[in-house]
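Convert to structure. Protein one:
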Amino acid sequence: MKVQNAMFQAGPQVEHSPNYYITDHFMYSDFLCPCCDMLKIVPAFYRHVSLLEQMREKVGVPIIITSGYRCKHHNDLVGGSPRSWHLLFATDINTENDDKDKLKILCEAAVNLGFGGIGQYETHIHLDLRPEPLRWRR
């Protein structure tokens, strides 16, 4: 019996992976590592995304995810800490048009919602669910 090579060829190439909403406003693709398209689903992932959704609804401001999960390679490329929470799961968020006043309101909401790590930067807010609260500004 002769097996034809055509049987083992891949089908048509898919240019974009399917994407699914996790909440009303956030999709899995919002949190992917940009260099490898990977996402680590840790136990706190869904709680973290749920808190982001609550924050968006409470404040009424669209939230832009500028960084989510990072693989070690990408974390090294962006100069992230070797023990960065992004290696597990964290988000950096911003607002449309880099609105500094709205960013401050989002930061206050993050504190009230119970995010553990909250870092205020010039252009974004870092959020994670570390067990002991930590706040910083850079």
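Protein two, convert as well:
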Amino acid sequence: MIDAHCHLQFKAFENDYDAVIKDAFANDVTAIINTGTQLSSSRSAVDFAQKYDNLYAIVGVHPHHADKIQHHPEVVEASEGVADVKQEPHNVDPDYWLHELEKHTKHPKVLAIGEIGMDYYSYQSNGIVEPKLQREIFVAQIELAHKAKLPLQIHNRQAGEDVIAVLKQNKHLLLNNPGMFHCFAGSKEVLIDALNLGFSIGFDGNSTRLPCRSLPNSHRLIGLSLKQMLRILLRFRIAENVMNRNMLHLLHASLQNVLASPMRNSWNRQTKMSILCLPS
């Protein structure tokens, strides 16, 4: 069992991440992939990967941070940790963040660029980041992934058509196995376009609804996304793997009518992506 998307470097885990990681590995989790959302959390994801065997990193800038990354690249939101003010450069080069990410792509345990994409949800902290700026940051990271020969982990929230448009415009930069859509949320048309581009699809609480039910098995990723799917049950804490081990049997049973074959763990070392995602 592989956790293909988590944020163990976030503030919620600052006091118990070590115990969570050890519990996961003691309960049938074979690998954990920790995902960055901005420069600082990407750096931390790499640090975690260096500290633990079978823990890997994905580095990138979430579209929610596109309005800060060029001029305040070390700014961190409260939920994601504490900013390292010593790292904040003077007279910031607008491409500083991109050069820093590129350094991380050379690390052998960095598996992809993400989570990147577009997001039209209005956040309390900064509303909706200007779409043109989101697109600029998104494309820069697609170009970086192409240069580093890494797949993408895509974030899309209420912006499916524009995400697909950017990916189609840059199709020549995508790998043959371009990566995954994390926690897919979109129309059937967006789903079909993503599949036609070669992406695997991560789905969560929407697993029994269309369009996810029409997915081919080879492009499915299964996940538990806490904030949206288990908010009440787990009180805003990301589900720990021990609990997920106990829940796996229930999840498996509930998906029998969706999946043509039992859930199985498969680690594709060529594309460096997992096809089973638990939890996150």
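The chain is about 35% helix and 15% strand. Confidence is low (pLDDT under 50) at residues 222-280.
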